[in-house]
Amino acid sequence: MSKFEKTKVMKRYMVIVVVLTLLGLAVIGKAGYTMTAKKEYWTQVADRLKSDSDSVRPNRGNIFSCDGQLLASSIPEYKIFMDYQAGGGEDTAWVRQRDSIWAADLDSLCRGLHEIFPDKSAAEFRQRLVEGKQKRLQNGTVGARHWPVWRRKISYNTFCEVRQLPYFNLPPNKGGFHWEKFEARRRPFGTLAERTIGDIRSFEGGKDTARFGIELSYDSILRGHHGLERKQKVLNKFVNITLAPPVDGADVITTIDVGMQDLAEQALLEELHKDNASMGVAILMEVQTGDVKAIVNMRKGEDGIYREIYNDAISYRCEPGSVFKTASMLVALDDGVVDTNYVIHTGSGIMRMHGANMKDHNWHRGGYGDINVARALEVSSNIGVSYVIDNFYGKDPTRYVNGLYRVGIGQDLGLAIKGYLPPKIRMPDTKTTNKALYWSKTTLPWMSIGYETQIAPINTVTFYNAIANNGRMMRPRFVKRIEKDGEVILETQPEVIKEQIAKPSSIATMQTILRHVVSQGLGRKAGSHSFQVSGKTGTAQVSQGGAGYRSGQMWYWLSFCGYFPSDAPRYSCIVCLKKPGLPASGGGMAGAVFHHISEGVMAKNLKLSVEDARDSLSSFTPDVKQGNRRATDYVLRELGVKGSEATLLQAEQPEKGVPNLVGMGARDAVYTLERHGLRAHLSGTGRVRHQSMAPGSPVVKGATCDLALE
User: Fold this and answer.
1) Are the C-beta atoms of 144 and 134 separated by less than 8 Å?
2) Cβ–Cβ contacts within 10 Å for residue 703, how many?
3) pLDDT tens, residue by residue, 300-332
4) Average pLDDT, the chain
5) CB proximity list for 313: less than 8 A, separation 6 or greater
6) Of the N and C termini of the chain, which has fewer Cβ atoms inside 10 Å?
């Protein structure tokens, strides 16, 4: 056994201790020197290896219909560029290697770009790319730093294809291919309810600006909150370091029903084309809640195409015409100055009132003679209504105007949608320097029949909705709730503006009169054989400003406002048309649109039990055509059918080549084409009847296939 020599071990130990101590002191000294004398130098080095804090855009929230269909959403778009000085401009090993890769890949790169963007040939792409590489900058260097490869924005799918091309698949700091990302707002249903849903002006420069509609009114909720990050170089690579994560915007669930909106739009457009009208408005509202289920605003452009240019339903204040007579008579009935049996002597259809002639629409046929109050509304007698108001309120017109505000026709609705303009119903003896606003002796009788006032369609339909709702006036509601990540964070409730706009007996009387307007008055065209309709027609001449009503061609504002079904009202609706010249009939033209909307809505809500159609030969397992399998599974799940029980019908088509799309719906057809690398251009509605590319023909990536739907 060897003997332990303590003296030798201790000497070696002390040497190690001294060395480590000196090394530690050296490290501490070097660190102190770096932190003091070299602090400024190393701070500059660190700044070069990291970027300033950058704002991180959150995802903007979506807008949905009341039944969960997507009305507006954000999708990424890209602009692509080349930096020919990436990786350094000096003659280094990597620069020489980069240039050799460029020379070897240029032809295949240009061919790939041509396949993705067929509008430009491979030779044109080559010329474009070589031009950027040879461009001499002002500082004397050669090679553009931000050279556009394709001048237009491209979709995410196209961007992914471009990223896979030769040379473009190199890291941006080496190959130089880089991009700018933008957010584009898209509406899957196109222009449907465009002015109400709203739009985004631009996402460029990291900023977006909501323009109008729900996008603007709920911008702070949809926008979310920006995050913060900075880039720092780690092991020759820049990494993003999140300082504060972005908070995505919440989703807005509207009251709009896509089916009803489409129905109202098509019915209105058909009449606009038929009558050569310049403007049309339609609003469909749920009686009990005030939910706006459809709102259409159409104006004819200079090219003759009807578009949603302004939200006229909430902002176009005009003289409403005879639909206003209902409010005038409701004031008189509620004040008890007349009842339905009160007789008016309308004579031959012309009555002199304060030096001016008041005429009924049938004055050239001899007028209506003696009629009572109820019949005056049924036939929309100007003399009948104006005589009652002038006779009983002529000495105290303020009482009448106060009555209009009491029954709600002059109510400021305080809508959340930007652009709403409240009614303008002036008071007597108001001091003004505007001669057009002077109160004269003729003001009261003409105001009573819908002139000398300014009211937007949304106010008129809200008033009629209150009559349908037994006197309770609801504030029009456009948004039902706000959701974030599938959870409800705010749910709006139906809001009552006025608990009772008039006495229940007055409301009941007016409900009876409005039902008779359609069943035995001028509103027959708005009626239905399947259910009862109540409402009032309106035909007004449109003033041309300072030129008055009779300058050049006469213009008319035609309207019908009412509700259905009469016995248990579910929906109220207003239709307005602005057109030049005769014929002009609120009941015959606006009433016809009302008729189509009401019958379509009631048919949509007609539900029959499938059990009533079951027999021994019935088959309740559906056949499924090919298309988006995820969407198919959803439909089968909602029908309570297992996917394994359904029969999947494969279209007769070869394994390769253009697919056979005939018989498919639009969504499945587009999905199938995109899976084959093709684009789709749709015309018409329904199922695919014809496709421009023959089934089985060779697929040209990026080519467009025209689909005719029927």
Assistant:
1) no
2) 17
3) 999 999 999 999 999 999 999 999 999 999 999
4) 85
5) 281, 282, 283, 295, 296, 297, 456, 457, 458
6) N
